[in-house]
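Section 3.1: Structural characterization of target chains.
Under the original work plan, the team committed to producing a structural model for every single-chain target entering the pipeline before any wet-lab resources were allocated. The record below documents one such target. The sequence was received from the expression subgroup and is listed exactly as submitted; it comprises 122 residues.
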Amino acid sequence: MNNKGYTTKQLLIVIIGLGIFTLGLFGATSYAYKDNSEAYYKEKVNLMEKQAVLYASTLDSLKEDNNTVITLDEMVEAGYYIADNDDGDVIDPRNTKATLNKTKIKISYENEEYKAKVIEDE
């Protein structure tokens, strides 16, 4: 006989092979569905601290006082941090209904160097 089609066994092998390939591909890309809000928050905190150091260089009184606490709101108003919307709000990536505008940042001046650290809520 001269058959010009595939057998049931051949079709099942191809279908099972494609299924295994699909599962492997899904497993390799599942990181894309992970919640990265905590990592994004840490990136925002790092950026806040870097921008606060730049902002600190404009504060003449800091060299005398050595320490001060500012809010993110002050940096937004001064143009040292860009808000996420037109209202001037910086959205918290961990909770998109909350803002980070009242976040406190401690700036210090030691050894002719500015340092900034975000004060976490306790």
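The longest helix spans residues 8-29.
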